[in-house]
TrEMBL record:
Composition-biased stretches (Basic residues): 108-119
Annotated region (Disordered), positions in chain: 67-119
Low complexity bias (residue ranges): 97-107
The protein, known as: Uncharacterized protein
Length: 119
């Protein structure tokens, strides 16, 4: 858990804007969270405050309230970006080959079963 001043300081290190304690109070008001200058902010409250910031920051409430700050950088590369054009559809790279539908003899409607029929 961290206090309001430390939360504001950590927010300031993440983006181009400098945050003050008053800014954190404004975020809390927008998130319908009651805080005061001496209140300790836990991961849940921090996440609610972070949800009020646009554009979103690359940390979670648990990361920003963790004892280790700044959060450790991952040695793994970030996942490639994917854009969603409509619900359920994913636009990937345009050079992906398309798979043809299965060719061969048509299948019958029944699948073989390992279950025996009772006699």
């Amino acid at each position: 858990m961290i206090n309001v001043q430390e939360f504001a300081r950590r927010l300031s290190t993440l983006g181009t804007d400098a945050f003050t304690s008053d800014d954190v109070v404004d975020l809390a008001t927008a998130a319908d969270v009651r805080i005061s200058a001496d209140l300790q902010i836990d991961a849940t409250v921090a996440q609610r405050l972070l949800d009020q910031i646009s554009p979103t920051l690359p940390v979670t409430g648990a990361q920003i309230t963790a004892a280790q700050w700044p959060p450790p950088k991952s040695s793994r590369p970030a996942a490639p970006a994917v854009s969603f054009s409509s619900p359920g559809a994913v636009d990937g790279p345009a050079d992906q080959p398309t798979r043809p539908r299965s060719s061969g003899p048509p299948r019958s409607g029944r699948r073989p079963s390992s279950r025996r029929t009772g006699r």
